Amino acid sequence: MMLDFSIYRYNPDVDDAPKMRDYQLEVEDGQDMMVLDALIALKEKDPTLSFRRSCREGVCGSDGMNMNGKNGLACITPLSSLRKGKIVVRPLPGLPVVRDLVVDLTQFYTQYEKIKPFLINDDKQPPAREFIQSQEDRAKLDGLYECILCACCSSACPSFWWNPDKFIGPAGLLHAYRFLIDSRDTATDERLNNLDDAFSVFRCHSIMNCVSVCPKGLNPTKAIGQIKSMLLQRAV
Amino acid sequence: MVTNEASMKRNGIQDYVSTRTTAAIMTAFTFFMVYFFVTTPVITFEVWQSLFANIYMKAFTLATLISIMIHVRIGLWQVLTDYVKPTGLRAGLQYVLNLIAFAYVAVGLFVLWGV
Question: Which residue of A182, A201, B2, B34 is 20 to 30 Å from A156, comparing CA positions?
Fold first, then answer.
């Protein structure tokens, strides 16, 4: 069985403009494989094809890309899940392209840094060893801590496309909420102060693209709604 | 902590609350008008005039017009800051579009006044 691919190619050092290049890959009948495996096979034919990958099992978040119009991780997206016909692979949208499928994530990480993604505790005497939470408090982190920062969500968000310097983006806000509701974190007010403007949180219009593309099945829109609610409750 | 919501500067929480509260008023007005059209067998000029001659209806209509202006002002600011990046052009567009939104309220007010 011959599979057709159309892959975004752009080397800023050489090319004047990006272009789509067609590839074909011979696959045994009935055999399925992940998009990443197909890309690795294509790279053996064309070593100039560039993409990021590391763990190749959906843990590291390196190989986020746009496949047939939807962001996802190439390593856990089976070819069979994509619609029939030519498979179109592009870099994550809305981010500067370094080369081919490799994007510059500086803006994404800058927004992530803004939310102070670490536990802040002003307790004078923190526990010497374990910082124990109740089971209920720990359960609040479920659906939040699993984010691997693959940038599939933020790069699928129009609000992030138009204001990547001001809007934190779904990934950053999911992490922000993860620390806001952590029972061990004491910087809730400081964190909310940093988010209290017209762009950081409120540029989310709940269109849920982030939920639709998250390869880990998380719900950033819900977390953002909770942050809005926290901001609202302390303002009225 | 109560933030400075009286400021002319855009405030996320204020905008968030304003869009929802104004939307509620606009929705209520829409439902009321649909109810009026469905339940009134024949709508003549007299029926229409007597509807808007009622002081409560005048207040309701004016509240709706002002809600539209507030809603439009916030929505336009959000859309323009998304799509129009040159500051001068954006400011100009905001000025003209907000003026039009205000004109709708002013015209509506004079129409209601005359009923």
Answer: A182
Q: Are A158 and A212 in contact (CB under 8 A)?
A: no
Q: Cβ–Cβ of B82/A162 closer than 8 Å? A: yes
Of B10, B82, B83, the CB nearest to A198: B10
Complex-level ipTM: 0.81
What CA–CA distance (Å, rounded) separates A31 from A49?
24
Length of chain A: 236
CA distance A105 to A62: 11
Q: Does A196 contact B2 at a Cβ distance shorter than 8 Å?
A: no
Q: At what angle do helices A170-180 and A188-195 cross, to 10 degrees?
A: 160
Q: Closest Cα partner for A72 from A207, A214, A174, A211?
A: A214
Structure tokens at B31: 């439902």
φ and ψ at B63, to 5 degrees? -60, -40
CB contact (8 A) between residue A197 and residue B12: yes
pTM: 0.90
Residues of A in contact with B10 (CB under 8 A): 198
Q: Are the C-beta atoms of A176 and A230 separated by less than 8 Å?
A: no
E strand or H helix that includes residue B59: helix B55-83
Contact between residue A97 and residue A91 where contact means Cβ atoms under 8 Å apart: yes
- Tokens 């939040």 — which residue? A144
What pLDDT tens digit does each residue of chain A (236 aa) get?
Answer: 899 999 999 999 999 999 999 999 999 888 899 999 999 999 999 999 999 999 999 999 999 999 999 999 999 999 999 977 899 999 999 999 999 999 999 999 999 999 999 999 887 667 778 888 899 999 999 999 999 999 999 999 999 999 999 999 999 999 999 999 999 999 999 999 999 999 999 999 999 999 999 999 999 999 999 999 999 999 98
Per-window interface: A 90-119 vs B, CB < 8 A: none
- The tokens for B113 are 């006044």
Contact B17 A159 (CB under 8 A): no
